[in-house]
Amino acid sequence: MKEETRPYTLPLPTIRRYPIYLRAIKTKIAGGELTVSSAVLAEELGLDPVLTRKDLAMAGIPGKPRCGYPARELCEAMNRALGWDSATDAALVGVGMLGRALLGYSGFEEQNLNIAAAFDANPETYGRTFHGVKVRPMDELTGLTKRLKLSLAILTVPATGAQKCADELVAAGIKGILNFAPIQLTVPEGVTVQNVDIAQSLAVLSHTIARG
User: Fold this and answer.
1) How confident is the model at residue 185 (pLDDT cuts 50, 70, 90)?
2) Residue 197 has pLDDT above 50, yes or no
3) Residue 56 three-state SS
4) Is the pLDDT score of 6 beyond 70?
5) Same domain, 106 and 137
6) CA nearest to 90, candidates 7, 204, 185, 169
7) Residues 102, 154: contact at Cβ < 8 Å?
8) Distance from C-alpha of 70 to C-alpha of 130, rounded to nearest angstrom
9) I need a surface site. Which of 91, 118, 174, 175 has the fewest CB within 10 A?
10) Positive or negative CA dihedral for 34, 36, 40, 43?
């Protein structure tokens, strides 16, 4: 029996750059290009060409001198490396304005991410449907998350309730949380939290503009 090849673990900085490469490569494919050069890609994205060449090499698709990489094969390999080659269902907790916007965000489809369930603590939202997803009360979170075997969650709740929600998600078997709440969550080992801090990004922009 042939042993299954396990995916290569990418360095975190490379993981963060892969979506940027993928967008650029998909644009080239849409324009009819069959190959992509790491040097050209680096120049267009403002990256170090040596770094870009190393990043693309980690996808495991060999490139050819003066020809570059086969674009479609490289895209497929990068998607596999990121775990985007198969559909992933997720839960969303917090169906306020941001949560509703994310329910309608079409970009998740590119990453093969599907929000399969949405939860909120506000009774006025119960039973309502946003972008095809029905909102359920928080007391259904544990049972439905386990029943659907979800491992990823998106958290868009106020800071005051974020830790409690995170604890419930972890207890329900969630292994990864995309956290939009302005708070550092405490989670056990084996659970990964990726924070999306809008305030930090705005602070950088405001500071840069003020100094300019």
Assistant:
1) very high
2) yes
3) helix
4) no
5) yes
6) 169
7) yes
8) 40
9) 175
10) positive
Instruction: Find where tokens 């590119």 sit.
Output: 110
- Picking from 49, 124, 41, the residue whose alpha carbon sits closest to that of residue 75 is 41
Contact 192, 176 (CB under 8 A): yes
CATH number, domain with residue 63: 1.10.10.10
Q: Within this chain, do residues 76 and 112 fall inside the same structural domain, yes or no? A: no
For the chain, what is the mean pLDDT? 91
**Both structure tokens of 93:** 């907790």
The per-residue pLDDT for 41 is 95
pTM for the complete prediction? 0.80
**Domain shared by 99 and 188, yes or no:** yes
131 sits in the region (left: phi over 0; alpha: psi -120 to 50; else beta) called: left
Look at the chain and report how many structural domains it folds into: 2
**CATH number, domain with residue 120:** 3.40.50.720
Token pair of 178 as six digits: 């995309």
Within 8 A by CB and 6+ apart from 79, the residues are: 22, 85, 112
pLDDT score of 151 more than 80 = yes
Count Cβ atoms below 10 Å from residue 76 Cβ, excluding itself.
15
Which domain covers residue 41, as residue numbers?
12-82
Q: Which helix (H) or strand (E) holds 59?
A: none
For residues 78 and 92, state if they share a domain. no
Determine, yes or no, domain membership for 174: yes
**What's the rounded Cα separation, in Å, for the pair 84 and 112?**
6
